[in-house]
Amino acid sequence: MIQNLVDGVLVGSILSLGAIGLTMAMHMLRFANFSHAELLSIGAYSALVFDGLFEVIYPALGSAIGPLSLTWALSLAIILSMAITGASAVLIDRLIFRRVRAKGGELSMVFASFGVAMIIRNILGLIFGLGSQLYSKDIVFAMAISRDPLLLVKPDQVFSLVAALVIMIILHLILSRTTFGYALRAVAENPTLAQVSGINLSRMILLIWIIGGGLAAAAGVFYGLSNQINPVLGRDLVLPIFAATIVGGIGSVYGAVLGGFLVGIASNLALVVLPSGYSPSVPFLIILAVLMVRPTGLFGEERL
User: Fold this and answer.
1) Among 28, 234, 205, 208, which Cα is nearest to 116's?
2) What are phi and psi for residue 289, nearest 5 degrees?
């Protein structure tokens, strides 16, 4: 059971990164973006491409960093994948969401996001194939961090957890101590009043997409370090990410972080009493439970 708890914390850090961008976009743009999880796939595959490219250009970058399967090439690829995924999120908004937003309502945006998710998933399958791929074929053995009880953790999982926490801390500092953070909260609460106060709404939306896309890319790569990546990665993670967003409260970055860890821990602890085939239903149960008890989530606030 303690092993499941540890695994849940490791998985929760990935869900938290994905949920942060989703909750920010949902709160500001007022629609459930079901294509957000596909940004994790874009980030994961972008890193895979640049990882191979860097190794070809400079083979020395292909060496692993310490006990990790992570190479220097992949480390650089993560940064580029975050930039590319952020740019992809902006492009998707410009080509599709902004046009639908101008002519349709929230429901139209939701249906459009389903279409975008299907398009991205099939494009990735067409380009990279439907099979699963790995960042590294080297076998990395789990470390025993405790003998009684026996707890096993892979070095890559520890790296992903630490890196995710560092990213969250940086984002916290940006949101709490910069003008951008204050402007973001103002736009989220009242876009019209924020514009009257001199805040450029279009620029804020642009930054939200960039940040959300970058965080999703990091989550996709961290997931790929411990698992195989495939074109349906986003489909498999969309419900846990939405569950984390709803549990934390739509619009709350800190709620998304907490919600990600709670969903990750709950899903893994459920494996103690449920067969593994039933574990995908846990995010559904969490969403239903939160909506019945506290529809606004742990940190969400009712909107007037």
Assistant:
1) 234
2) -65, -45
Structure tokens at 58: 């400079």
Which H or E element spans position 152?
A: strand 150-153
pLDDT digits (tens, 9 = 90+) for 179-194: 888 887 777 667 777 8
Instruction: Please name which of 33, 7, 20 lies closest in space to residue 110, comparing C-alpha atoms.
Output: 33
In sequence order, which ranges of the chain are alpha helices (DSSP H)?
A: 2-29, 38-57, 72-92, 98-103, 106-128, 155-177, 179-189, 191-196, 201-226, 233-248, 253-269, 282-293
- pLDDT averaged per 10 residues, the chain (length 304): 82 91 84 92 94 90 83 92 95 91 83 93 92 79 70 84 91 86 77 80 88 93 89 91 89 87 87 75 83 80 55
pLDDT at 304: 47
| Rounded alpha-carbon distances, angstroms, from residue 248 to 74, 165, 266, 295 | 32, 17, 14, 10
The label of the residue with tokens 């970055």 reads: 253
> What's the longest Cα–Cα distance across the chain?
61
Nearest-angstrom CA–CA distance, 63 and 65:
7
**Rounded Cα distance, 144 and 238, in Å:** 31
Prior bond of 149 cis (ω within 30°): yes
For residue 135, CA distances in Å to 68, 80, 183, 187, 254 come to: 12, 15, 38, 39, 31
| CA Rg value for the chain | 19
Closest CA to 264 of 1, 13, 39, 20: 13
Q: Which domains does the chain have, with CATH numbers?
A: 2-293 (1.10.3470)
